[in-house]
TrEMBL record:
Limits of the DUF8212 domain: 237-270
Heterokaryon incompatibility domain ranges (all copies): 22-115
Domain of life: Eukaryota
Stretches that traverse the bilayer: none
Full protein name: HET-domain-containing protein
A Pfam entry, by short name: DUF8212
Length: 567
């Protein structure tokens, strides 16, 4: 470690076990780096000609000598930044250097004085925290790490200690007063270890750095991790690498409790990977605290993050869409339930693969869950498939969005007592795979069936819009064919879109949409037919999937009653 001799202004290098007591300076760099006294300037006459020599170097050395310290550390001149190896070692050691200092002088060059010369009145503490120093990324660890820290104005008037200004600093930075008033470096480290990862991330969410990658590198000491510096990789990659290092050393699941930024939500991509892209995505995480429990294991692979999570399906949470992964963390003071992240199954990648949706976090309200056993420590009282279960899942690293607009149609199944007579358009129908391909999802597709015993014929008609103003999932309807229409009627010409342009005329001549298609079996039991439509996939390709279903007895009566009641 190099230290600046406060008397001679010369640099002296010390081995780790020989470092003497020293003062340390925290400041913001000038917008013009040439104004700063650099490593290459020390010992040369030009160092004394630079503005920072009189403004920062000399006063800091005088303050150190006055307090009995022969050495001072200043980042501008004590690091040879021309050496990438030395710069990397310095960045990884920075938190420790501030923590091991005997005293830290914080120089606020944009705060004129403790006393306003114009009014001869004292400046309020909130005015001090408006300094640019409180907006920079690197100064976060410089604020937290030292055991003894004093703020000085532009003219080196004492503004106060960190303890004295703790209330206004906490209000500005959202850092707990317990940390700001801990007093000793060891106590500060101890308090930091009890803060959730998300909470610590929130402290830097609105800070800035000159070089994009530094928004991640400036947090190494806050999370007690080390990693190589790769300037040029960009802020997103650097921040992801930081999170990966945190995953190796922490079982705190609040690292996953981020919320997509507004700019990210405006992007066309629907899904995200498991990790945040920038600290700003933890902007609302200041109140998140970890929950006690048996530490879970993580495994970050090329596919994604393998993690044990309680996965809650949509039917268990009223008024919430999609699946939710329950984390072992919650909002401080809120004991309604734990936080959960929005997940989306990726079935074409495997039964246990999920992507992260861009929706906000939610608090799981245990009182509204359909299964109240899932938060018990013992085994589930019921293992029904629909109930939330602890699962080992993979949250994909780089999820690929499945194309929303399906083009092909798969007739998955139909009743054994019905025979498929015709599929239209015929040239696009593959009877072996029961797939009807198409280059245009808006083309109407029709399947004509005949009930074996009653000889009743009906058409299952798929149309993408069915006169809706905007495209929807699609629609499938079942119509009883007029006895006279045994062959393909004119409106079922191959590939003709929207056959019901004149809806009223078509209904009058070919079908009655309110008339349930039904027949009676040998026992006199009334039977009917229905069709269900969903989106699915075959070998990773999106499909519309139709299942034609038999409806019997009371179920048919209930369906007719519901149809009547809906008008």
């Amino acid at each position: 470690m190099r230290l600046l001799n406060a008397e001679t202004k010369e640099l002296v290098q010390f081995l780790p076990n020989k470092i003497p007591p020293y003062a340390i300076l925290s400041h913001t760099w000038s917008s013009d780096p040439d104004e700063e006294v650099l490593f290459s300037d020390i010992g040369k006459e030009k160092a004394k000609q630079k503005p920072a020599y009189k403004q920062k170097i000399t006063p800091a050395c005088k303050k150190a000598l006055k307090r009995g310290f022969d050495y001072v550390w200043i980042d501008t001149c004590c690091i040879d930044k021309s050496s990438s190896a030395e710069l990397q070692e310095a960045v990884n050691s920075m938190f420790n250097w501030y923590s091991q200092s005997s005293i830290c002088f914080v120089y606020l060059e944009d705060v004129p004085s403790k006393t306003d010369e114009a009014t001869d009145s004292e400046i309020e503490d909130d005015f001090i925290t408006k300094s640019r120093w409180f907006t920079r990324g690197w100064t976060l660890q410089e604020l937290i790490a030292p055991g003894n820290l004093i703020f000085y104005s532009k003219y080196w008037d004492k503004l106060g200690t960190r303890e004295l200004l703790a209330s206004s600093i906490s209000k500005k930075t959202k850092i707990g007063k317990e940390i700001l008033t801990a007093g000793r470096a060891e106590a500060i480290r101890f308090d930091l270890s009890f803060r959730s990862v998300a909470n610590r991330m929130s402290w830097v969410s609105f800070r800035e750095t000159t070089r994009p990658e530094d928004i991640a590198y400036c947090l190494l000491g806050i999370f007690d991790v080390n990693m190589p510096l790769l300037y040029g990789e960009g802020a997103t990659k650097a921040f992801r690498r930081l999170q990966e290092e945190i995953l190796k050393n922490s079982d705190d699941q609040s690292l996953l409790a981020w919320t997509a930024s507004r700019s990210d939500k405006e992007r066309t991509e629907k899904f995200r990977g498991p990790l945040a892209e920038h600290p700003i995505e933890f902007r609302d995480a200041g109140r998140i605290a970890p929950l006690p429990g048996v530490p879970d294991t993580y495994l970050l692979t090329s596919s994604g993050l393998r993690i044990d999570l309680l996965v809650v399906p949509p039917n268990c949470l009223p008024f919430q869409d999609g699946f939710w992964g329950v984390l072992r963390c919650h909002y401080t003071g809120d004991f309604t339930g734990p936080l959960a992240i929005p997940l989306e199954p990726q079935p074409w990648q495997g039964n246990k693969v999920y992507a992260r949706r861009k929706a906000n976090l939610i608090t799981i309200d245990r009182s509204k869950l359909t299964n109240h056993d899932i938060f018990q420590n013992g085994p589930f009282a019921s293992q029904k498939k629909a109930h939330p279960q602890n699962q080992t899942i993979i949250i994909q690293r780089n999820p690929k969005r499945l194309i929303d607009d399906c083009e092909h149609l798969h007739l998955e199944s139909w009743p054994n007592d019905c025979t498929l007579i015709q599929a239209i358009p015929e040239e696009q129908w593959d009877s072996r795979t029961r797939i009807m391909g198409s280059d245009d999802y808006n083309v109407t597709r029709v399947f004509i069936f005949e009930h074996v015993s009653s000889k009743t014929r009906f058409a299952v008609v798929f149309g993408y819009s069915f006169r809706f103003p905007q495209p929807t999932l699609g629609n499938v309807k079942v119509f009883k064919l007029d006895p006279g229409m045994l062959s393909s009627p004119p409106w079922l010409q191959d590939g003709k879109p929207e056959p019901w342009m004149d809806w009223e005329w078509e209904v009058e001549h070919f079908w009655d949409p309110d008339d349930t298609v039904h027949w009676y079996d040998s026992k006199g039991v009334k039977q009917g037919i229905g069709a269900a439509l969903r989106k699915g996939h075959i070998m990773g390709v999106p499909f519309f999937v139709i299942n034609v279903e038999s409806i019997k007895g009371s179920a048919l009566k209930l369906r007719e009653d519901l149809s009547d009641s809906s008008g």
